[in-house]
Each structure stands twice: as structure tokens, then as C-alpha cells.
Amino acid sequence: MRVFAQPVASVDFRHGGLLITGHPLEERGVHRRALIRDEGMLAVHDLESLFNGVTAPQISFHSPWPGWRRRVHSVSPDLSFAVFSGQRAIYAAEPDGGVRWEYGHQCRGCREHDHTVADHVCDGLESGSVRVSDDGTLVWGHIRGFEYEEWVVLDAITGRVVAKTPLDRAAVGSLMQHPLSAALDDWQRAWSAQLDTG
What is the pLDDT of residues 82-134, one digit of tens each? Predict the structure, then answer.
């Protein structure tokens, strides 16, 4: 079977080349958004508005690590917070620049080095990823653990670990978009219930 794609719209947008790595477009029900790196900020653009000539972002969040480019970030469905994937932490930020929480993990740098400078960008090409669940209550993170790559599920309000599991191999940009996020949410709830009763 052949499928022929045709463009249905285009927009002249000077920041188009700055779409974030990994999953730069998030679809949440009727909302479709583009996530763009813009001078130390994560700018969130509504795609329908963008195609109608509105080039100002809906909202922007301060990036905790402006120099770190290899990352997959996510925003909550209601735009009340953004989650950033960094070399050494997952970081949840409020729109006013406040920190909701930070979850540290092993560095993704390619060799031993000093971490005394908090925003230092380490060598290496590896990148983790994060994804806020479709209901906004959980944050999925792909991180480097002490021995293995790991998936962690964090409470979106507190950053508390709800569940985690080791991965048998590295997977850059591993957290998927809709519709898989709904399946991941179902898996997490079932796993959490098993942990609670087990």
C-alpha cells in the first residue's frame, strides 16, 4: 500500500531550527504544542496559533542548564510546570522560575570529572528523557543509575519516586509520545498497586 503525504500548511518561524531534541511536539488531547529552546528558555508554542500567525509562546520556562543541548523535556498538560532532563538530574520548574523539585542521578558524561560547577556541561553525547503523563500526575524519566540505565516514575508534585526499574540497554530519547503514554500510565498504576499489596 502506498501512502502519499502532502503539506497542508507552513509557517515562517525564525525559531523552527531550535525545536528541542527528541520529542519537540507534544499532543495532549486537542492541544498540540511545539517545545523550543530560546536563549536559556523553554518556549511552548500552540501549533494552531503558530499556523495562524501568532509567534509569541503560550508560556516560557527558565532552563536550569542553558548550555545542555542534548535533552528531551516535557510540559504538563495544563502548562503549570515543565520538566527538564539534564546530565545529572531531572528538574521540575514553575513558570515564574521557581523549582518544584529536583531528582538527581548519575552523570551522563563519558568519563570521571569534577562537578563542583553546578551548570557545567560534561563531555558525552548521551541523553536521558522525561515525559509528563497525560493526566499531569506523574513524570516518567529515563536516567543513568549506579549500575544500569533506569526508568523512574516520579510524583509530579513532589518528585518522590513512585516506581523504578532497570533497563537492559541504553535508549536515547526513550520516552514516547501519545498514545504510548496512556499505556505507560496504565502499566505504572498496575505496577504501583502490585508494590503496595506485595
Answer: 998 877 788 999 999 899 999 987 776 555 655 555 555 565 555 678 899 98
> How many Å apart are CA 162 and CA 168, to the nearest integer?
20
Show Cβ contacts of residue 97 under 8 Å, excluding neighbours closer than 6 positions. 61, 62
CB 57 within 8 A of CB 36: yes
Distance (Å, whole) CA 165 – CA 148:
9
3-state class of 154 per DSSP? Answer: strand
Kindly report the CA angle at 129 between 124 and 130, in degrees rounded to 5?
150
Residue 73 C-alpha cell reads as 523535556
Q: What is the pLDDT of residues 52-85, one digit of tens each?
A: 888 899 999 998 876 666 667 899 999 999 998 8
197 pLDDT more than 60: no
Cβ-proximal residues to 142 (8 Å cutoff; 6+ apart), any chain: 85, 128, 129, 130, 149, 150, 151, 167, 171, 174, 175
Specify the 3-state DSSP secondary structure of 120.
coil
3-state secondary structure of 176: coil
